[in-house]
Design a protein that fits this description.
The complex is a heterodimer of chains A (394) and B (74). Chain A is built from twelve helices and 13 strands. Chain A is α/β, with parallel strands linked by helices. In chain A, strands 2-8-7-6-5-3-4 form a seven-stranded mixed sheet, with helices on both faces. The model of chain B has no long low-confidence stretch (mean pLDDT 92). The chains are: A alpha/beta (394), B alpha+beta (74).
């Protein structure tokens, strides 16, 4: 099997960018759609169109189950978490509004906010600890009379640092502020409940821990918020075709144009895989891998690890540096000589790297996934040991 | 023999109609998705048809779970 041979050669530690491999059922679902269905959902009404629509509904239902939101129609699909965040931020914030975020954000949050800031939105970036933790009390202190929204990442894509989402949600709710959460790194990897965490807007990525294909993501919108949430795009939705005005209801308001049905077929299968395995089991496996790796790194000379010391306080993401070796040189060596695939540099998150003190050189980032094995961690530790040993030559 | 009379439930979009279909399938209530009849609406979507005697069962089952726009007798 060529796939197995590939697996033998490659140690894939870039799951924080996109997960790989994917469950067999995800690939089968995408082939099934193309071979046997093929219709355009919500556009016609014949059996193929309806079957395509049913696939998308099932994807919504699976995600609603995962996020604990009662009504699956509260979830609009987008092409990625970035698009979902752009809808949430630019759809609500107006000049004069104040928005609070953390100093650990990915550019998927920071760039839309800086763009809005240039148009007159007031922005507060609350500093975090050197481990990347946001103190809810610091957020409370940043609240102003015109604060409209708190937007934070559930977990950092650089250090894996898990933020105290429930505590932050409570502060936002108590002050009548909208709470928007970027779950790109956590949906499928950590338990999420939009009610218990008081989340108003939740952006997710489909192709990371939800095991869908790239080109899938979405936005959960709390009931009633869509009335004041502008769409990023308008156009055909298959609904209300006799009117030239954009539908004002979920999810159609944010789903103009033919959707990525084949991608959502894969996403549904990916989310069903997560639900069948169980988020707890996935979390336990990934935390175990992370613990093993952190313990192994701790006894190697010349290694600096960033983020919280305990694996329980982070996702399966570890950023580190090897003394005397640049992150990019290390990543190249790891790829070419050891078959270990990771991501060096700034990870689209300059604010986070400033927070942990690694700007502008960045770090080497390992992002473990559910399909990684203990043996792969051990092989990687041996590889890092050999790189660290010859660090002065680099 | 009396002719069977039907009603149709019209939804905001096909996503709602398909959610209703899923709920009714689970509840074992007979229904059928059909294209919206031209004389009811110029919308190009689908609606959910059931026999008139099932209307209240449908309403009870869908209430609070999926919103519909209106119910029209055929």
């Amino acid at each position: 099997m060529p796939f197995d041979e590939l697996n033998k050669r490659i140690i894939y530690f870039d799951n924080a960018a996109t997960s790989w491999p994917k469950p067999a059922a995800m690939i089968a679902a995408m082939i099934n759609y193309n071979e046997l269905i093929g219709g355009s959902p919500g556009r016609s009404g014949h059996r193929s169109s309806l079957d395509a629509g049913r696939i998308i509904l099932e994807a919504r239902e699976a995600l609603a189950g995962l996020f604990g939101c009662g009504d699956s129609l509260r979830i609009a699909f987008t092409k990625n978490a970035t698009e979902a965040l752009n809808i949430a931020l630019s759809g609500i914030l107006n000049p004069g509004d104040h928005v609070i975020t953390s100093a650990m954000e990915h550019n998927s949050v920071m760039r839309p906010l800086r763009y809005l800031e240039a148009q007159g939105v007031k922005l507060s970036v609350v500093p975090c600890s050197a481990d990347g933790i946001l103190d809810p009390e610091d957020v409370r202190a940043a609240i102003r009379p015109r604060t409209r929204m708190l937007v934070v990442t559930h977990a950092s894509n650089v250090t894996g640092t898990i933020q105290p989402i429930a505590a932050l949600g409570k502060i936002a709710r108590d002050h009548g502020i909208l709470f928007c959460v970027d779950t790109a790194q956590t949906a499928g990897a950590l338990p999420i409940n939009v009610d218990e965490m008081a989340i108003d807007l939740l952006a997710f990525s489909g192709h990371k821990s939800l095991f869908g294909p790239q080109g899938t993501g979405g936005l959960y919108v709390r009931e009633g918020l869509e009335k004041g949430l502008r769409p990023l795009m308008t156009g055909g939705t298959g609904s209300r075709s006799e009117f030239e005005g954009q539908p004002d209801f979920m999810p159609d308001k944010y789903e103009s144009g033919t959707p990525n049905t084949i991608g959502l077929a894969g996403l549904e299968a990916g989310v069903r895989f997560v639900l069948a395995e169980g988020v707890e089991a996935i979390r336990n496996k990934e935390e175990g891998l992370t613990t093993r790796f952190l313990a192994g790194l701790a006894v190697l000379p010349g290694i600096t690890v960033y983020g919280p010391p305990a694996a329980a306080s982070r996702t399966a993401v570890v950023s580190f540096n090897i003394a005397g070796v640049s992150p990019s040189a290390a990543a190249l060596e790891l790829d070419e000589h050891f078959g270990i695939l990771c991501r060096p540099g700034l990870h689209c998150a300059p604010a986070a790297h400033r927070t942990i003190g690694t700007f502008p050189q960045g770090t080497i980032r390992f992002g473990f996934g559910y399909f990684n094995k203990d043996e792969e961690i051990d092989l990687a530790l041996e590889a890092i040991r050999s790189l660290a040993g010859c660090g002065t030559d680099k | 023999m009396e002719e069977q009379r039907y009603v149709v439930f019209l939804f905001p979009s096909v996503s709602y109609a398909l959610k209703a279909e899923k709920i009714l399938k689970a509840a074992g209530i007979a229904h059928k998705l059909i294209p919206v009849p031209r004389h009811i609406s110029s919308d190009c979507g689908v609606c959910l048809r059931a026999t008139e005697d099932k209307q209240q069962d449908l309403e009870r089952e869908l209430q609070g779970k999926v919103a519909w726009d209106k119910i029209v007798s055929l």
